[in-house]
């Protein structure tokens, strides 16, 4: 995810997943997590060289904050949607906490009526998932987000008559 042309919207999504993961680890107010990330984890710092130092360099801060707020304030609606989209043998608490944060962020963004097209959201979170995971997690995230995108934004997936 580092190198090449700056992608602030992708950086926002990476940071949102990290912030949601952090927020789940302790009883931290989402505004506190957003503030901590803006102050200490977003943008370039002297001597920093990439995601591996814990900073996300190219970020659309407004998008980052919007995703984190939407995912945390809407979690009571988002979690049941994710749980229903998962296979019966994969309850929410069985998910890796980073994967759970990623899915929450993706669904929160899919719920934004004025957000980017669903396919863009899905592809972005698939890219983010590949940055965090090397196993089957990106495929699982893709499946859940795709299924929920069809439910949340049906107009973007016209039914083709056969």
Q: What's the structural domain tally?
A: 1
Rg, Å, rounded: 16 Å
> Structural class of the secondary elements?
mainly alpha
Enter the CATH topology name: N-utilizing Substance Protein B Homolog, Chain A
Description:
- The protein is mainly α and 162 residues long.
- The chain has a single domain, classed as NusB-like (N-utilizing Substance Protein B Homolog, Chain A, Orthogonal Bundle), CATH 1.10.940.
- The protein has seven helices and no strands.
- Helix 1 packs across helix 2 (30-40), helix 3 crosses helix 5 and helix 5 (97-110) runs antiparallel to helix 6 (118-132).
- The longest helix is centred in the first third of the chain and has 18 residues, at 8-25.
- Residues 48-52 have low confidence and may be disordered.
Overview in brief:
With 162 residues, the chain is an all-alpha fold.
Structural descriptors:
mainly alpha, 0% strand, 60% helix, N-utilizing Substance Protein B Homolog, Chain A, 162 residues
Topology:
Blueprint lengths: L7 H18 L4 H11 L20 H13 L1 H11 L11 H14 L7 H15 L4 H16 L10
Helix pairs in contact: 1-2, 1-3, 1-5, 2-3, 3-5, 4-5, 5-6, 5-7, 6-7
